[in-house]
Each structure stands twice: as C-alpha cells, then as structure tokens.
C-alpha cells in the first residue's frame, strides 16, 4: 500500500539512506528501530513525502508520490496521512476538542460536525470529559492522547509517529505507544512508528531495523 523502493537520501556529503526498500501493507503497523543517526527519521520522512529521496521512489496505493508537485504532496499528507511527530505540539489557545477537530476543519467540514467527530474520538481515548480544557490544563499523558486523536480524526490511511514519547519516562512512553498502536489498529489505518523501545516495537506487527542507512532484518512483532 505504501512502499519505498531503493530509496537513497543524502544531505550534502552525509548519506542518510542507501537503497532502502520497505513495503507497508493496509492496516499493518511497522516499528522502525535502530541506533541513533542510522536513518530512521529520514526513512519515515521519505515515506511520508516530507523529504524527497535523492534516488529511488515512493509509492502509495499504486501511485508514485515522491515526485509530486509540492501542492499535491501537501494535499496527500493532509488527507491520507496522520502525524504524531511530536507530542505536545497542540495549539495552546485551542481546547482539546478544537485541536482534534482541526484536520477536519481544514478539510472543509463544518465546525459543529468536526467537533462532534473529535469528541467521539476523545471518548474512545477516555478523555471526553476534558474536551473543553486547553492543553496547559491537562497532564502530559492526556496531551498525548489528544495528539493521537488528532492524528486519527480524519481517518487517514497511514499514521506516522516519530519518537513520539522521547520526553517521557520509559513506562509512560511504553503505555502511550501501545495506546497509539491499538488506536490505529481499531481505525484500520496503517502505522509507521520510529522507536528506540524494544518492548514497544514488539507490539507492532513487524519490526524493521535500520543500520547505516540500510534496512536490515525484519521480524514479526
Ligand atoms: N538536515 C540534515 N542535514 C544534514 N544531515 C542530516 C540531516 N538530517 C539527518 N542527517 C544525517 O542523516 C543521518 C540519519 O539521520 P536520521 O535523523 O534519519 O537518523 P535517526 O536514526 O532518526 O537518528 P535519531 O535516532 O538520533 O533520531 C545522520 O547521519 C544525520 O546526521
């Protein structure tokens, strides 16, 4: 459904990816593991159309997406993809339900309808009672649940999550990531998650190891 074919990526003299190939199936969750600087984020950014590969190609549902004009690429990200690139990047002035409804509002859905759908999702993540609070008025874990809801509300085909729990202690980090994996699965979306945490990676359907910009062994999660 989403596929990187022989993707290479260089930043000047630095090589981030070398012939990296990865295919993600419909509804599948894939954890990307590997040492610091190995190319995990680069791979995620290429798959998501945020970075253009220097060589190779990226395909989504049979269509090549790495060479789309910027406008079409942004449109694809807005409609088909959801992002949890960093927890805590909620809009501070907006309530939790307003934050979650943003992807729908940007997609042209009326505010009232968007908020109803957002509230529904907050409910499945057990924080509907906090919907009218602002991010500063809830805990870190509750902000993270809100970020998960926001990534899922427009029913994206793929959710991308890059080290979403870096700022948390390992126990909370693990809880949040498992919650993310479950929530994505319930929605039928695919998930590509970058994590250092082996236990979290084990909750994914598949683990992909990146080393020196190359994809190594893949195992079942
Ligand atoms: N904007 C950039 N400019 C120059 N080099 C970069 C840039 N981004 C990444 N790199 C290089 O590409 C390589 C892969 O980086 P990447 O961020 O993909 O690794 P990572 O596995 O996600 O690392 P970490 O776990 O530390 O976040 C590294 O050697 C890094 O120095």
Automatic annotation (TrEMBL):
Limits of the ABC transporter domain: 2-221
Gene3D superfamilies assigned: P-loop containing nucleotide triphosphate hydrolases
Any coiled-coil regions, as ranges: none
Classification via SUPFAM superfamilies: P-loop containing nucleoside triphosphate hydrolases
UniProt KW Transport keyword: yes
Pfam family for this entry, one: ABC_tran
Keyword Oxidoreductase: no
PANTHER family, per the entry: ABC TRANSPORTER RELATED, IMPORT ATP-BINDING PROTEIN
Protein name, as recorded: ABC transporter ATP-binding protein
């Amino acid at each position: 459904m989403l596929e990187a074919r022989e993707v290479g990526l260089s930043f000047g003299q630095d090589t981030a990816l070398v012939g990296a190939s990865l295919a993600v199936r419909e509804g599948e969750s894939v954890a990307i593991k590997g040492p610091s600087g190995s190319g995990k984020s680069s791979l995620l950014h290429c798959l998501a159309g945020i970075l253009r590969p220097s060589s190779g190609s990226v395909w989504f549902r049979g269509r090549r997406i790495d060479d789309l004009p910027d406008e079409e690429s942004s449109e694809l990200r807005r409609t088909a993809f959801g992002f949890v690139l960093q927890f805590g990047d909620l809009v501070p002035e907006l309530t939790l339900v307003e934050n979650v409804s943003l992807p729908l509002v940007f997609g042209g859905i009326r505010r009232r309808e968007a908020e109803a759908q957002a509230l529904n999702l907050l409910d499945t993540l057990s924080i509907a009672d906090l919907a009218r609070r602002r991010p500063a008025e809830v805990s870190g874990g509750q902000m993270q649940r809100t970020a998960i809801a926001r990534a899922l509300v427009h029913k994206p085909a793929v959710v991308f999550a890059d080290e979403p729990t870096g700022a948390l202690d390992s126990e909370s980090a693990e809880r949040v990531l498992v919650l993310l994996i479950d929530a994505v699965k319930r929605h039928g979306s695919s998930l590509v998650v970058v994590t250092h945490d082996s236990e979290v990676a084990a909750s994914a359907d598949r683990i992909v190891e990146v080393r020196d910009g190359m994809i190594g062994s893949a195992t079942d999660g």
